[in-house]
Amino acid sequence: MSYHVCLVCMGNICRSPMAEVVLRHTLAEHGLDRLVTVDSAGTDGWHEGGPMDDRAASTLVVHGLDGSAHRARRFRSEWFGYADLVLAMDAANLRALRRIAPPGADVRLMRSFDPAAPANAEVPDPYYGGDEGFTEVLHMVRAASEGLAKHLAEALR
Prior knowledge:
By secondary structure, the chain is α/β, with parallel strands linked by helices. It is built from four helices and four strands, in the order βαβαβαβα.
């Protein structure tokens, strides 16, 4: 049985799929890829079935990562039945998830695992900006992924 992490943003085409790819890569580097399952979703279903935003995918490629297999999907409340940890990219997504979460569900902000991030730090939505916003998101999710990998290494071994 593996530990399951679901990463959630609004449309599941920018932040959460980037975080999914980065977290999978980070977990593999830490030898945790066989212990942890990672996926992503959006709180809204506007882009369901569609690929990752081209700018997000390009940013990953520049950093040696591949998000080409991603297809957007909407988070379903029944997923709390198998997700051990649900990580929201921002406060609005956190509120949306907590509204549908059952008691005891572990729902947090992604950056809560970045020891250098301030309390309640969010991963900003780069959708309406330029390429630099996607690079900024990549650095944020990479730092949070490192912190999460360290946390999971202690918790799961």
